[in-house]
């Protein structure tokens, strides 16, 4: 569902991304189960992280998962780039159970629908990237007619539907996670390298899930540039409201780097969205599914997550009191032109 184009050339939506830009109110979502951990709704923002070991090295991966759980991780994601990695998942699951750990496992899939089908039997959630789950990136410039574009969507649906049906049957959840750096040629040629392209890339997959009455979905819009990431999440929230969708969000700044640089990017990106009331998990990088991206020891970013979550809880605690920034809002309104107050104008 598309709205009119603003004077800045950015698509405007029928609804704002949050009920109010001047007072805190967490974005309402449905609750999605990741194993025994509930995400969204009135559940606390969940902390997750991602292992940095080769997944095929099961003992090393198990050891790192144990250490992540020890420092507060509630959900752990492992990358599955090859069949060798996928075949290690049963051993990892069994090894964790022997240690008395039932932490939910997430399989991160790129380029390989067949691996995703295998992983559904051994994890609590699969993450797919809409930019490369079906499409190959060839950096081609193509002009699609509406009919040709619809044919591409049908091809996507044919390839994605088996995973949707199997995940629904197994009762596991799925994250549809767009990465700014891996948008398909089809999306780039129609929507450009833009937050709108990121949003439409994900919504194409969401609509397929909904056509099969599968709703155990969590969404993410990741970019290495915090400004792009913030715009994409806000635009996704507005579009989902337009289409009567209420899926929770996993927050993250991808490829944030190391040390101070990573912490600043993550704090700006994740912190801004949490202050909006957007986000249900964080992975050392975001909330309501928050992950902080860094190439260092995955435990190192958890302190920042805890700090951001403390700020989020503080805002939430003030919801029933007087509007937290009413005075500042009045000053802002007097100082700004009317158009600046429309949330859609900020995209």
The level-1 CATH class: Alpha Beta
Q: Report the CATH topology name.
A: TIM Barrel
- What's the name of the CATH homologous superfamily? Dihydropteroate synthase-like
Major sheet strand order: 8-7-6-5-4-3-10-11-9
Count of individual helical segments: 11
Cα-atom Rg, whole angstroms?
Answer: 20 Å
Low-confidence stretches: 1-10, 285-295, 320-347
What distance separates the N and C termini?
A: 17 Å
- Whole-number total of structural domains: 1
Q: Can you tell me the CATH architecture? A: Alpha-Beta Barrel
The residue-averaged pLDDT reads: 81
Shape, principal axes of CA atoms: globular
Order of helices and strands: EEEHEHHEHEHEHHEHEHEEHH
Structural class: alpha/beta
Number of E strands: 11
Helical content class: 40-55%
Largest sheet: 9 strands, parallel
Structure in words:
With about 350 residues, this protein is α/β, with parallel strands linked by helices. It has one domain (about 30-320): TIM Barrel. It has 11 helices and 11 strands. Strands 8-7-6-5-4-3-10-11-9 form a 9-stranded parallel beta sheet. Helix 4 (about 115-120) links the parallel strand 5 and strand 6. It is globular. The two termini are about 15 Å apart.
Defining traits:
347 residues, alpha/beta, TIM Barrel, 9-stranded parallel β-sheet, two-stranded antiparallel sheet, 11 helices, 42% helix, disordered N terminus, disordered C terminus
Question: In a nutshell, what does this entry contain?
Answer:
The chain has 347 residues and is of the alpha/beta class.
